[in-house]
Design a protein that fits this description.
Elements: H1 4-12, E1 21-24, E2 38-39, E3 54-57, E4 71-79, E5 93-97, E6 109-112, E7 122-125, E8 147-149, H2 157-165, E9 171-174, E10 179-184, E11 188-189, E12 200-201, H3 204-214, E13 221-225, H4 229-240, E14 245-249, H5 260-267, E15 270-274, E16 285-289, E17 292-297, H6 301-320, E18 329-334, E19 346-353, E20 356-359, E21 377-381, E22 393-398
Parallel strand pairs: 4-5, 10-13, 10-14, 11-12, 14-17, 18-20
Antiparallel strand pairs: 1-9, 2-8, 3-5, 3-6, 4-7, 15-16, 16-17, 18-22, 19-20, 19-21, 21-22
Helix pairs in contact: 1-6, 4-5
């Protein structure tokens, strides 16, 4: 029986991070992983520019300016953002300038318009500005050839803005992994259909598919199979030709209807391991079929959820090159009691805020789903612990 960390390492060793890329319009690339470097083709800003609306001039001409004794300068032109003043400012001259416009040759500062009389042909300056006091230097943000975006960076709002400032559109990104989700069980009914006696609605497939979408990947296939080894094997064989990872729920224990062991044999897939030292969700089965990874999780809803968060997520993070998939852990102070001994590494539904954590109230059985609502972490209880009490320091795995 493997530890969680060993199971993750075993799975990661069976695959390589995705290398295929595609080009996307920049405005649609949020959440994707950059497959190219982002280097500056020019200084930013590409010229000295004004940080405010006012008058571009020589700072030395305004040293003595005050409200009582203003300095009068000749206004020799006007320049807006996107324009260039064609001349050069001389002593006693000023150019009306707007924010973002290139500072004219000869000027070394900008007096804000509020410190003037807003003159059009001549302007009275009421407060001086020292040379380069109000002045954005060329390359102040970054210099030509600066590396601003690393290959492998996840594109968020800031990264997309940087890429835009570099003139990158479209951008090369790594393709997202193709992931199939299958739930098994004769008892399963699709939501929206009439629930017959002895049947239950299929929630596991919706949990996993929903978490995939929430974290940035849409399942390429989501469906369910009966407890028929031949049907299940054929479904997996077909999907393996077009997916990187197949996740199943149900059929992995040792009952008569736990068919995944037989399915693995029928497929002649290479089994990697069965069972992980975790409560709930010990019966995890993993195998490789050709180049496709197969991870089979428990049919109990909370057990499947635990193993998706602790085992499947790190594997997808490695495959997709997206580190945000890897769950973060932090030490927290427990704010209520959980008295049941662990026996194995036990993970409880919980809520964390500002370094404090609460074990969720409600049913903590492996088959219970409702107590998961509103939870944002899994609280770990170690095997040697006889439960946990308020004030204990424990680990929380953030969801």
């Amino acid at each position: 029986m493997l530890q969680i960390e060993d199971a993750v390492r075993c799975l990661q060793q069976q695959m390589q991070p995705i290398t295929k890329t595609q080009n996307l319009p920049l405005l649609t690339a949020a959440g994707w992983i950059l497959a190219q470097e982002g280097r500056a083709m020019a200084d930013q800003p590409p010229f000295p520019r004004s940080p405010l609306d006012g008058y571009a001039l020589r700072g030395q001409d305004t040293e003595a300016a005050s409200k009582e004794a203003p300095v009068c300068l000749q206004v020799v032109g006007r320049v807006y953002a996107g324009e260039v003043f064609p001349g050069q400012i001389k002593a006693g001259e000023a150019v009306r300038i707007m924010t973002g416009a290139p500072i004219p040759m000869g000027a070394d500062t900008v007096v804000r318009q509020e410190d003037s009389d807003y003159g059009q042909e001549q302007v009275l300056i009421y407060k001086g500005s020292r040379p380069y006091e109000n002045y954005c230097f060329q390359g102040e943000d970054y210099k030509k050839d600066s590396l601003l975006l690393q290959k492998g960076a996840k594109l968020g709002g800031c990264e997309i803005a940087l890429a835009a400032s570099l003139g990158m559109d479209p951008v090369a990104v790594y393709q997202k992994p193709k992931i199939a989700v299958i739930s098994t069980g004769d008892e399963l009914t699709k939501p929206g259909e009439k629930l017959m006696p002895g049947k239950i609605y299929d929630s596991n497939r919706y949990w996993i598919s929903g978490r995939l979408a929430e974290l940035g990947i849409l399942a390429s296939y989501s469906g369910q199979c009966k407890d028929e080894p031949e049907e299940m094997a054929e479904c997996i064989r077909r999907l393996s030709e077009q997916t990187d990872l197949i996740i199943t729920t149900g059929g992995v224990s040792v009952g008569e209807k736990d068919i995944l062991h037989e399915v693995i044999r029928r497929l002649s897939a290479r089994q990697l391991f069965w069972q992980v030292n975790v409560k709930p969700g010990a019966p995890v089965l993993a195998a490789v079929l050709d180049q496709t990874l197969l991870i089979c999780l428990s049919g109990n809803p909370f057990a499947a959820a635990v193993n998706f968060e602790l085992i499947v997520r790190p594997v997808i993070g490695y495959l997709s090159r997206d580190k945000s998939w890897i769950p973060k852990r932090k030490k927290v102070r427990l704010e209520n009691d959980y008295r049941k001994p662990a026996g194995a590494r036990r993970f409880l539904r919980g809520y964390e805020e500002d370094g404090k954590a609460w074990v969720a109230t409600g049913n903590h059985a492996a088959g219970a789903l409702s107590a998961m609502a509103g939870c944002n972490c899994l609280i770990e209880i170690l095997p040697q612990q006889a439960g946990a009490v308020k004030g204990d320091t424990v680990w929380a795995c953030l969801l």
